[in-house]
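User: Just a sanity check before I run the rest of the batch. Below are the structure tokens for the first item. I only need the designed sequence back.
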């Protein structure tokens, strides 16, 4: 996966949601305008029908009503005094001559007035004449026009907001993929670098053995042991890399159950007692009452093993290691403390990075590749927990792990 692929993926995260967002905004605004337009004109038509059915000028909008009677070429009209100008009435009468026989119709005058009318035939005197009831709906038209323009402005603003939101959202959405890609590329690059030296040593040792076909196994023991040691280092690296991949792949599918974390930690400490005895390390265990977490036992053992092994590795002879388990609110807190050289503040920021080692001088002679603490962090994150490191140079190092309590443990308290 290169930058072009990431860019295309980012564009998909941008264009598709924006298009959907725009479509929803336009549909919503269109629906709102349609409903308001329908309601407004329904009210105008109802007022028009009421004006035609009731006695003259006996409606709420009487000042907007004009009654026109057409008898051949003879036109007569009626309206409230001062409601319409003489010129407006004359233009309305002129428009009436050109209308069809529609039940409802509309027209505009040169003054900008908007009219809707209904026509019918009524008996006046001794004959039938056409009766036209007109209503001035200019105010409704202006209201709809203003509302429509405002709605367009709101729609454009919302569309712009959608563009801005998804522009940043696309960047954020692609970030985990980008980070995963960068971690994968970094892992491959670092693993290739770490494997290069052991492979070179193994090849050199084999070439030395091959250079003297008459030599015995005993004579070549030095080179064979060196090659075997490097093979073990590569094996250790591959296992660590598999652990990282396995944790990332099974974080959501691994089976978990309520376990007493005290029992798991105690069991792991027993397996390290012999090593501590050889180095005269004082190994102390402090714990509250039994604490349950929802986890996989093998995963917790892996986590504890990494932190205990790390503590023993960096604790000098006659030093001290303390493992403490506490209950704090809704979390089980594990503390792994050891005396020793400590870690500088500069290195603390990178302590959980893959392939990072505090003492790079031992890189070629140690079985550690700097993946242990990275695995520990991946484990805690897969369990929705956290891990931090505190240290003071020349005094101590403390790793603090927080894991959520099991629901059954929280309910019992």
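Assistant: Here's the designed sequence for the first item:
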């Amino acid at each position: 996966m290169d930058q072009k692929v990431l860019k295309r993926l980012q564009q998909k995260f941008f264009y598709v949601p924006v298009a959907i967002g725009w479509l929803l905004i336009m549909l919503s605004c269109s629906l709102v305008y349609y409903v308001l337009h329908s309601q407004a004109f329904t009210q105008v038509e109802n007022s028009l029908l009421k004006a035609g059915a009731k006695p003259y000028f006996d409606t709420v909008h009487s000042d907007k009503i004009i009654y026109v009677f057409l008898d051949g070429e003879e036109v007569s009209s009626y309206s409230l005094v001062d409601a319409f100008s003489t010129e407006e009435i004359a233009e309305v009468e002129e428009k009436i001559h050109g209308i069809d026989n529609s039940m409802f119709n509309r027209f505009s005058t040169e003054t900008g007035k908007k009219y809707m009318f209904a026509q019918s035939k009524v008996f006046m005197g001794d004959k039938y004449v056409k009766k036209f009831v007109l209503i001035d709906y200019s105010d409704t038209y202006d209201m709809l026009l203003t509302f429509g323009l405002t709605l367009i402005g709101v729609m454009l603003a919302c569309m712009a907001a959608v563009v801005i939101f998804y522009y940043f959202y696309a960047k954020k959405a692609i970030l985990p993929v980008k980070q995963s890609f960068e971690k994968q590329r970094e892992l491959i690059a670092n693993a290739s670098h770490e494997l290069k030296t052991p492979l070179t040593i193994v090849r050199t040792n084999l070439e030395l053995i091959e250079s003297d076909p008459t030599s015995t196994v005993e004579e070549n023991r030095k080179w064979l042991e060196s090659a075997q040691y490097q093979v073990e280092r590569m094996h250790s690296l591959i296992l660590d890399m598999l652990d990282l991949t396995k944790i990332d792949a099974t974080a959501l599918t691994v089976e978990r159950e309520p376990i007493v974390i005290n029992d798991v930690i105690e069991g792991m400490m027993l397996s390290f007692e012999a090593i501590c005895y050889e180095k005269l390390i004082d190994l102390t265990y402090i714990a509250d009452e039994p604490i349950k977490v929802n986890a996989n036992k093998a995963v917790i053992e892996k986590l504890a093993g990494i932190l205990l092994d790390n503590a023993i590795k960096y604790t000098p002879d006659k030093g001290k290691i303390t493992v403490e388990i506490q209950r704090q609110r809704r979390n089980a807190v594990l503390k792994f403390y050891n005396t020793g050289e400590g870690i500088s503040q500069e290195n603390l920021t990178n302590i959980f990075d893959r392939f990072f080692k505090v003492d790079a001088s031992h890189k070629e002679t140690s079985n550690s590749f700097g993946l242990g603490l990275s695995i520990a962090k991946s484990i805690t994150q897969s369990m929705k927990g956290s891990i931090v490191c505190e240290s003071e140079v020349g005094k101590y190092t403390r790793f603090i792990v927080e894991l959520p309590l099991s629901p059954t443990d929280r309910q019992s308290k």
